[in-house]
Design goal:
Uridine Diphospho-n-acetylenolpyruvylglucosamine Reductase, domain 3; Enolase-like, domain 1; 3 domains; single chain; about 280 residues; five-stranded mixed beta sheet; Uridine Diphospho-n-acetylenolpyruvylglucosamine Reductase, domain 2; 11 helices; alpha+beta; about 40% helix
Length: about 280
């Protein structure tokens, strides 16, 4: 089967625990973590990925747990897209939209939370949503457990290596998400998430800087200090368009992506204002 897919020969170590996985990564610096493989297999067949050594973590049960309390969510790195979105859709509206706009139901049952976050790409719809919910990533390393904010992780890759164990984020019924896509893949030309509640305002986009998702703090500060009137919603959308620096590629121009981001934010804020009223 691997030959039919034109996948090069690879070396895989199967870890039965997080500790085993961390030791395997430390022993051989050329190894990378392998989870569901939805991205890795594609990258190997196209020749984009050069790595040939992996640590398979799919048997580690503690990475598959999803715990929800009244205010927080704690999700293991191997929780699937379908699992997290379907379980939280009624409590976090953004996940309902995320699932409705998913490209392939079959992939949603295999693709993992950790896999999406480790890619750090604009294609991953989960990232803007989790950014607005102040997500933290918890890694296991040779030197013990390390915690880093998702925003910090996207901004600069950590100097240490480890296995992503879980993701912790706020449970917010005010978090909304929308995106503009092209073609059957439904990869976003632009995606926007916003969480607008009392004491918590988050705004994040898929293409904050080139192809890297990120929060837009200037727009957040404006929304924190101003009511959701029609005039302020219009200003917030225009601010977002000016604040981001998206990629300019064959799918869409940077100008178009900026405009799309502003329109999507306005739509979400109008929806949120309607809920408040």
């Amino acid at each position: 089967m691997l030959g039919y897919l034109n996948i090069p020969r690879i070396d895989v170590v199967v870890a039965e625990s997080v500790d085993e996985a961390v030791k395997a990564l430390a022993k051989d610096r050329e190894r990378e973590v392998l989870a569901a493989g939805t991205e890795v297999i594609t990258s190997l067949t196209t020749g984009e990925k050069r790595a040939r050594k992996f640590v398979d973590i799919t048997r580690i049960e503690e990475l598959k747990q999803l715990t929800v309390t009244d205010s927080m969510v704690d999700a293991g790195a191997l929780v699937t897209h379908h699992q997290i979105a379907s379980q939280l859709a009624k409590q976090i509206p953004a996940f309902d939209t995320f699932l409705q706009n998913y490209s392939s139901p079959a992939v949603s049952y295999r693709a993992t939370l950790g896999g999406s976050l480790m890619l750090r790409r604009a294609t991953e719809d989960l990232i803007p949503i989790l950014l607005t919910l102040d997500a933290d990533l918890v890694f296991e390393t040779e030197d013990g457990e390390k915690r880093i904010s998702l925003q910090g992780f996207l901004r600069e890759e950590p100097s240490w290596r480890g296995v992503l164990k879980r993701v912790s984020f706020r449970l917010s019924r005010k978090c909304l998400f929308d995106k503009l896509w092209l073609g059957v893949s439904r990869f976003p030309l632009m995606a926007v998430a916003v969480d607008h509640g009392v004491g918590n305002v988050g705004v994040a986009v898929s293409h904050r800087d080139f192809e890297r998702p990120g929060r837009v703090f200037s727009v957040e500060r404006f929304l924190e200090n101003n009511p959701l009137t029609s005039e302020n919603i219009e200003k917030a959308g225009d601010m977002l368009s000016r604040a981001i620096n998206p990629v300019d590629d064959v799918l869409a121009s940077a100008w178009y992506r900026r405009k799309a981001a502003g329109v999507l934010l306005k739509r979400l804020l109008l929806r949120r204002a309607g809920d408040v009223m």
